[in-house]
Every structure is written in structure tokens, then in C-alpha cells.
TrEMBL record, chain A:
Domain ABC transmembrane type-1, first and last residues per copy: 96-310
PROSITE patterns: ABC_TM1
Protein name per its UniProtKB record: Sugar ABC transporter permease
UniProt source species: Sanguibacter suaedae
CDD domains: TM_PBP2
Domain of life assignment: Bacteria
Automatic annotation (TrEMBL), chain B:
Secretion signal span: 1-25
Transmembrane segments: none
Protein name (database record): Sugar ABC transporter substrate-binding protein
Pfam families attached to this UniProt entry: SBP_bac_1
Lineage: Bacteria, Bacillati, Actinomycetota, Actinomycetes, Micrococcales
The keyword Kinase is assigned to this record: no
Keyword Signal attributed: yes
Entries under InterPro entries matching the protein: Bact_solute-bd_prot1, SBP
Superkingdom classification of source: Bacteria
Keywords: Signal
Amino acid sequence: MTSPTKPQHAAPGAPAPEATQPPRRTARRSRYTRQDWAGAGFVAPFLAVFVFSIVAPLLYALYLSFFQDRLIGGSFFTGLANYTKALADPLLHAGLGRVLLFLAVQVPIMIGIALFAALAIDSGRLRGSGGFRIALFLPYAVPSVVAALMWGYIYGEDFGLVGQVFDLFGATPPALLSGTWMLASIGNIVTWSFMGYNMLILYSALRVIPTELYEAAEIDGAGALRTAWSIKLPALRPALLLTVIFSIIGSFQLFNEPNVLRSLAPTTITTYYTPNMYAYNLAFNGQQYNYSAAVAVIVGLITVLVAYAAQRVSNRAETGRKSK
Amino acid sequence: MNTTRARLQRSTGIAATLALTLGLAACGGGDGDDTPGSADGVTVADIDAVLESDEEVTIEYWTWVPDIQDTVDLFEETYPHITVNVTNAGQSADQYTKLQNAVKAGSGAPDVAQIEYFALPQFALSEAVVPLSEVGLGDLEGEYAASAWDQVSVSGAQYGFPQDTGPMVMFYREDILADLGVEVPETWDDFVEVARAIKADNPDNYITSIDPGDAGGVDSLIWQAGGRPFSVDGTTVGVDFTDEGTQQWTELYDTLVQEELVDVTAGWNDAFWRSFADGKYAMWLTGAWAPGSIRNNIPTSEGLWRAAPMPTYEAGTPMNAENGGSAITVMQQSDKKAAALAFARWMTTSPEAVLSQSQAGLFPATTGIMEDPEFLGTEDPFFGNQKTNEVFVEASQSVSSGWQYLPFQVYANSVFGDTAGQALSNATPLADGLQTWQDEAVSYGAGQGFTMAD
């Protein structure tokens, strides 16, 4: 994936070589018009689904966020009131702070492990690498709700696996579902679930590196570590960026794991533990759909900004490296 | 009609929007496209006629009562032309979220739904359920226990058929108390002493647990202490946790929690049931509906349990409260209201239905059965052949009146863990915790347009 392969054929709609064109201008113009319509026809099905299922709901959420609907008194326009309230809402701040901390700690760990696993499997020094690949990817196939339930049992202090192992050694098990440990416990579940997925993205990026580069490196006398550092890592840059952006979005959307663990720790995991849980509880327990929409819009914008910032930082580093 | 429709369309959009923008899946099934807000002119004659006719009807019924299928089978045997599809759409708040979504969306609600008494005012306020008086069934008062009829009444109208009530009962492990050589506590002072004896015997054990996320459990304990924190008069709502009864409870539970005599931990999960099975907990203070749940979740403890009246604050003065209990309601969205109402009425008034549900572990809300010597004399082998129904009927009769739930109790309960539950978890003064819950409820109520009383 170092550079996209150049298209072998001219893209549809691009001007064909002059020589093959008939000399009459009118004919050419009508041919272009026909081609344009054909293109639109191909795009239309996607566009229709995109507009109806992505754009329209987003606009609708935006529209809703300017209103307020009361149990007594009905619905009325409130302008930006929901936004000013949300921006000053300590519960939303708490949730955002929590997912940012989660993002800063969990994502580097998860991607670090995924990168190590991808390099190890790609190194060719692993016996039965196919088995490793499947085993590491398997947790991704477990639905996140099931994963959270399963880990919830494992974390249990009295009857869980962790508790029983500690009991075996006569030690006091850590309260993995208490305030101090909870975010780490969730991070562990998420890492377990998504490490294999990220590994697979990185691994497939490694597979497309032309073997000539490795041959050249070998001739130049580069060892395995040097090859990994100078060839594999630079080639992985776009794939790494992709996994980072996916993980940023995933962190902001943290919902299933804390929501499932809530039944085990109802006071540690508050209704506003993550911004997504807050929006959910506002809408479905509090029936504050409008305020919830405003919260969702704000969280969405922050996610876009953070993901964009990650991309900018990465691009700047890339251009800086190239100009050296 | 126009506002209804606009509201309906907007709500559908909201659900869709949220589901898409937040990546959440809104749940719901079934069909029915009726606009809410009218009972379709159904009368008692229509309800009787639907049972007589042989026209095939299928109705959807959401409930989480264990073994309810047995009773539904009885109904289908009696009325083979009516098919009832039972769906467990989650317990309590989980189901209300789905039901509320369906109400907002204008479709997807079942014909018949179980709604606990605490949540009924909210569904009544949004006109999501059929009031019995609107279909000529407002005169069933004599059929049900007074406390049950009281709890389905919202501003003078009844919004459901009382299915079961949950007078508070002290369920205890007879073997544990016998091993320790302690008497069954009659007052809360005795209770604290027994709790200390259990703790002294083994510091890992507790007399019982309290769920810091369960507002309903705390509500019942406050009710039992004589507290009346919620008041509703039309759209004027009051929340006040400083009355004498509530203080009586906070003092008692401050002692129990701070001395670590009760285990502050979530209920209704695997660890909770195992704690009873393993003898970590000696008691469960809860509604009389509990036997079914105990039987299903801890079958190994057969014969070890007994039921006793709740401890009292003053010796010899029984004062009780309800915990849970549900109504069977018919949704305004249903397009088979006659059949749905006929089914719901049969479930709660027909002697065979009531008996069947009581055998499944529910404590019925129907008065007829409470005087039935066969019912009272039933010996329950799970409870060492104790005549538990006698205890439950007595518990039901000593329920004190005047308790009210907020018209936004579902929301208030959902933030209990964020506020008062924190005081339980951190063993800080409960009065302060309740104050934060009160502030949250008052601010929500005011924001929703209710007049908040001082």
C-alpha cells in the first residue's frame, strides 16, 4: 500500500485521445452528455440509500436538537438552548473525560499488541502462523454484549474466575468491578475483542509489500529487525492510521461493555458513564429526545474533530519524513 | 388528531435518528398502526362477544413473569380461537424502554403488556394504555385487594388489571438462623442484633443484601418505615425525603451499611443467587412474588426457606409496604383491544387463572382467592411445608395506604444509582444521598413542565 497502482485504463468520462474522436463537435458533446447520465445512474442507488439512511437522519437529529418536548406542555422551539446546556453539562464532561482517558491508554496498548502480532505472524518465523491468525481474530467474532457478559463473570470477586484463582493462593482478589478498576476492566474487554481485528488490517497491509524490497534489503545485509523498522513500519503507516481512526471512533462510541457491566456495578457505572450511555439514557429513560439529539450531535462533532486531528498529525509527520 | 400524527411522525424519526446516529438498535416487534388516544369505542359487550365467537385472533403479550405460559395455556384451552403469543421483552426497565419506544414510534407495541405499579402513572400520562372506565370496566374494584386497586389508579381512573401485589415479606433461611441459635427477628432492633450475630460468626456473611441500583427496593423500605416522599396532585409534584418515616429508615440503614451488616451489591445476577445458595446471605426482604424466583434460580435450596412478616419499628404494630407488583395493561396501539381486554380480565379475575399464577409463585391481587381456605391452607414444600399464603395475606392486609409514585418514576429510578445509590456504595449518610436524588428528580420534573411543590 505504499502508493496506489496507477490506473491502466482511462477512467470513464475522461477525455479519450483526440485522434480517435470524430471531428464534429456536436456529436462529441452529445456523447459526453449521455455518459454523464450513465454515471449518475450507477451512483443513484448508493446515493439514495446514503441520503435516506445517513444524511436524512443526521439532518433530522440536528433539527430535533433545536426543540424541547415536555411531558406537560408539549414541544416548542428553543434555539441553541440544548447546546448551551450540553456544553455546560458536568455529566457530559465527565463522560467525555472518561472516554478520552480510555482513548489515550487503551488504544495505544491495543494497537501496539496488534502491531506486534501482525509483525510476528508476517515474520515467517512462527510455526503454524495461520492458527495464530485465526485464534487472535476469533474474539472479534464474539458479539460485544456476549463478550462483556462473559468477562463480567470472569471478573466476579466471589464466584468469578479471578476470585477463584486468587482464593486458590489465599489472596484477596482485586475488585475489578469497582471504581478504581472499572475503566481498566472495560479496556481489557475491548482490547480482547478488537485486537485481532486490528491485527488483521495490519497483517493484510504487510502482505502487499512487494517481495523485491525484502530481497533488496537482504542483499544490502539488513537483518529482520532492520527490515521491520525500515520497510514494514513505513509501509504500515496508512493502515495504522486507519486502525487509529477506527479506534478513536470506537472509543467515543463506547456503550455495550459498560452498559452490560452496569447490572453488576450499578453505582460504579453511572447512567452518564460514557457520552453514548448518557445520550441513550436521556432519550430512553428520561424521554429527553431533543436534548439527547444535541448531545449526540456534539459528541459526533468531537469525534470527527479528534479523528481529523489524528489524520492531520499523521499526514504532517509523513510529509516531514518525505522532505528530509 | 393532527398534533397526534405530527407527534407520531416526529417520534418515529427520533427513534430512527437515534438508532442510526448513535449506532443503537431500537427494539420492538409486532404490528398495529392505530393512533394512540382512543379505545376504539370498545364496550363490555364487545369484550364478552369476542370470547363467545369463534373468530381466530392472535394477540401479543409482553411479560417477564416466570412460568406464565402455564396460565396462558389454560386460557387457550378454554378459548381455542384466541392465540396468545408470550414474549419476554426484558425485565422491568428494559421492557419499559422498549414499550416507550414503541409508544413513541406509534407502532411495535404488543396488545397486552405487564407494567409494574410504579411505572403505570407514566404510561397513563402519555395515554399509552387503555383506562378501564373507557371500556366500561371501571366497576371491578371489589375484585381486587384495596392496595392493588389503589395502585392502578391514576387521577381517579384505573389503567390496568391488577395482576399481583408484592406485600413485603421477610424470607429467611431457617437452617442458618437455627445453626446460630437466634430467633426470627420481629422488630428492626432484633434484626440488627441477628445481623451482628451473623457477622460475628463469619465476617464474609451478611444478613441480606441491598442493591444500590434498585430504587424500588429502597422505596419499599421507606414506605414500610412510614415515609411518603412522593406526592402527586394533577401536574403538581412533590419530592421530599426529609419526613419522619424516611428519617427512621435512613437511621436504621446507616447503621446496617456502615457496620457492613448488609452487603451493598447488585441483585438479580448470578453472584446474587449463588450467595443465597451458599449461605452468604441469610435473608431476602422483598415482595411476596419472590417464591417463584427463588424456586427458579436456587432450586437446590428447597426446604430451607421460611417466610415471616417484615420486622417492625415498633413491636406489635405491623406496618407494611408493597414491593413491585404488576398490572396487566392493554395498549392503546392494539387493534385487537376487545380480545386483549378479555384476556387481561380473565387472567386477573378467573379463579383458575389466579390459582395457576399463584402456583407459579405470584401473590395474586384478586380478593376472591385470599379468603379461599384451599389457597390459605396450601403447604409449600419449598418452604418446609409452611402455609406461606397465610403469611402473605396477613402481609398484604397490613400494607399502609397513601403511597404515591411520581409520573416520571421510571426516570427517577434510573438515576437512583447515580445519586442515592452512591451513598449506599460509599457508606456515607443516606439522608445526603437521598437529597441528591431529590434534587435530580425535582430538576427533571421542573424541566418536564410539572409544577414542583416545595
